[in-house]
Amino acid sequence: MFDGLIPPEQSETLRQAVASAEDPYAYQLEQHISDQLVPDDHVSAVGRRYAAQAWVVYVLAMLAHSRGDEAAAWYYLSETRFRQGQLEADYVALKRIAQIKAAGRKGGQKTGLQSSPLMRQCIHLLAKKRPPTGWTSHEQAFVAIAPELIDFSTFEFGDVVTRDELASRVVSWIATRPDFRDAYEGKTSQT
């Protein structure tokens, strides 16, 4: 259960810390154990606390078993499993959130391009107006396509976007989106 979570070289030290503690449920001990855990991207600070608590009651179960108190050992073991369940729920929830965010970023870009005539027109103009030697900067690319893009935006949407807002968007799109970067670098054909 603790494989990969507690470094093997720390296991005995942490076991001794719990065994010798006056109050094995003390916050300071829990924090000390939590600090020794191997970090994982999908375990929150709360999840680390659950793992530390699980370790404490697991050690208490082993101690109860070694002194022959099977009832206490089973109680502590059930507490260990409960804390493990809390840790797993935390892990699954954070992992799912990360997956949703990643899918949202990816899907949002694709959906944005499909539903935005302005974005499609910008890519078209970047590819069409690209000098044979390439653009020298994102700003130069915007200046070159700005008149046609502003005309398109005004015709398509009315005068909703200022030149500064449009410049900021286009420069950002070129810097952050692969489809715009490809048009900027001449890796796409003119459409």
List the helices and strands and how they pair.
Blueprint: H1 8-20, H2 27-36, H3 45-66, H4 70-115, H5 117-129, H6 138-157, H7 163-176, H8 178-185
Helix pairs in contact: 2-3, 3-4, 5-6, 5-8, 6-7, 7-8
General description of the model:
- There is one protein chain.
- By secondary structure, the chain is mainly α.
- The protein folds into 2 domains: 8-108; 116-185, no CATH class.
- It is 76% helix and 0% strand.
- It has 8 helices and no strands.
- The protein has helices at 8-20, 27-36, 45-66, 70-115, 117-129, 138-157, 163-176, 178-185.
- The radius of gyration is 29 Å and the shape is rod-shaped.
- The two termini are 56 Å apart.
Q: Pick out the low-confidence regions.
A: none
> Number of helical segments?
8
CA-based gyration radius: 29 Å
Q: What is the helical fraction, as a range of percent?
A: over 70%
Largest sheet: none
- The count of domains is 2
Which overall shape is indicated by the principal axes computed on the Cα atoms?
rod-shaped
Write a short abstract of this structure.
It contains eight helices and no strands. It has 191 residues and is mainly α.
Provide tags for this entry.
mainly alpha, 2 domains, 191 residues
